Amino acid sequence: MTTGVEGSTRWPAITKNVAAFPVQPNLLDYDAARRDFSWDQARQALAGLPGGRGLNIGYEAVDRHVAEGRGAKEALRFVRADGGTRSLSYGDLAEASGRFASVLRSLGVGRGERVFSLLGRSPELYVAVLGTFKNGSVFCPLFSAFGPEPVRQRLHLGSGRVLVTTRALYRRKVAPVRDSLPDLRHVLLVDADGGGEHVPAEPGTLDLAALLSQVDPVEEIADTQPEDMALLHFTSGTTGTPKGAIHVHDAVAAHYATGRFALDLHPDDVYWCTADPGWVTGTSYGIIAPLVHGVTAIVDEEELDADRWYRILAGQHVTIWYTAPTALRMLMKAGAERAAGHDLSALRFIASVGEPLNPEAVVWGQEVLGLPVHDNWWQTETGGIMIANYPAMDIRPGSMGRPLPGIEAALVARDADGKAVINDGQAVLVTDPDTMGELALRPGWPSMFRGYLNEEERYRRCFAGGWYLTGDLAKRDGDGYFWFVGRGDDVIKSSGHLIGPFEVESCLMEHPAVAEAGVIGVPDPVAGEVVKAFVELKAGHEPSEDLQLDIIGFARKRLGAAVAPRLLDFTTTLPKTRSGKILRRLLKARELGLPEGDTSTLESPAAPAAARQDRP
Ligand code: AMP
């Protein structure tokens, strides 16, 4: 079951000279780190609640540092629209989140009850997340650009008891649907006074600032236990309703260990994760992992803009940067000259997640930013990074890297219907190198989701023959590097070949005129399916029949006629999720006139993330 595509292996490996690194990486010897690692050992690096009362992410992320004398250290540095900054120390965060927990207690919000947020990346959001943990309640962040229906649907599915939001967002997105949310008892507005004393209060809401000023921080953090629910993250299903993935306090052991190995966090780092906490990356690695490691984390309150981002990287002396392929492609599109003149010498490590990282982007990092980009792989359900490229390890551009210490990954064979092959209760594994199978993980790591809220059967179906099945297809080379092929649903079957859209897209992006590409299969009476590409051009290139033929010819030369796109359309707006993933299933549904399925996470075509100005 090979794809028959040479694809990314054509890019030479990027080798490392660890001796020249400014900081010695946490993971130096991959095999030794895997051999010596255990999750219990990772748990021992955590403090646990004082008096052995349990484990609470809020304590590990914040109060622990205060207890150990690091309260004055800068925890979060927010970069405002005008480029100015405001900071919260670990001590400030401990105090503010303690007050937030107190407010929840005073409102009678109990353990396990759900607190939602619909906020931009403002300090209140971070305080609310940590305060919710400290109260023993469960946090569910929503992306502030969601429309009223996705907001209503998630609040309803998650039985949201409290919502923290702004006046404007409440008015536009929640007030119209409030009547249909009987479980939603309290709406806390972070700007209830609307910036002026004479603005009338919004009916049915409370003024968070006033409530915070009336209470003292909680004296005792809730004695949550490792298996108590801490976070609820909605992830979109390919069809039907979004799924609420449940994560527990024990997940912090994985955030700690993966932050150490895959992001190489050291206490002196200035770390910038560009993801919004509305997505799991923005919570696990925009809040929890950096704070647990006691670093200073940058939060940009604005949206992607090439010049702004270079200014932040340089001006804030960012040392570790965790971003996404969609953002990197956007910077590539903006042109290398935009990076020129910015002093990026503080930067020592760049990582990316969320989508396949085209080899082109890995190498672009090396050429333009002075460092290659390290791809890593995980999903909402895994709660933390599972497969990664590490600072001390050579990069094979186009590969996701190797499994984290403590993580056992494998490829499970699939039958003709795409179902995992199970024999005598055991999954049949694909062991030949460079052969495709479904990426699977051995259950048991601390940040593994513990369920889909109220959907026991859907959860059960994710496991078979002793493995958690990820729904992604991948290959592994002879040295244990994993290579992403595609989501199970996105793979194309053409004349007996199984074709991963990513390899075709990456090849198209090597054409000098192509900025971005999305590839799908469309039905064909002879081949079953043929490959169709949707291509966005770089500035300065116009669609034409000649260019279309040129790009197809270019792909053919590299991929062969069986795999190269037969059809190619130019587009200016590839459909993407708000977190930047190309929605191939939507391209396909639109192409074939099929139902579009769940589109609640779809980026509005009129306002792509890069240009959006809809600050709450
Ligand atoms: P979500 O849970 O919504 O964040 O989406 C997770 C999915 O994103 C994975 O199952 C993959 O299909 C895709 N994904 C995440 N990271 C990578 C990566 N490094 N390479 C390829 N696909 C990725």
UniProtKB/TrEMBL annotation:
Residue ranges with Low complexity bias: 605-616
Keyword annotations of the record: Acetylation, ATP-binding, Ligase, Nucleotide-binding
Bilayer-crossing regions: none
Start and end residues of each AMP-binding enzyme C-terminal domain: 503-581
InterPro entries attached to this UniProt entry: AMP-bd_C, AMP-bd_C_sf, AMP-binding_CS, AMP-dep_synth/lig_dom, ANL_N_sf
Name of the top EC class for this enzyme: ligase
Superkingdom of the source species: Bacteria
GO molecular function, one term: acetate-CoA ligase activity
Region annotation (Disordered) ranges: 594-616
EC code(s) of this entry: 6.2.1.1
PROSITE patterns membership: AMP_BINDING
Domain (AMP-dependent synthetase/ligase) ranges: 65-453
Entry keyword annotation includes Nucleotide-binding: yes
Protein name: acetate--CoA ligase
Source species taxonomy: Bacteria, Bacillati, Actinomycetota, Actinomycetes, Micrococcales
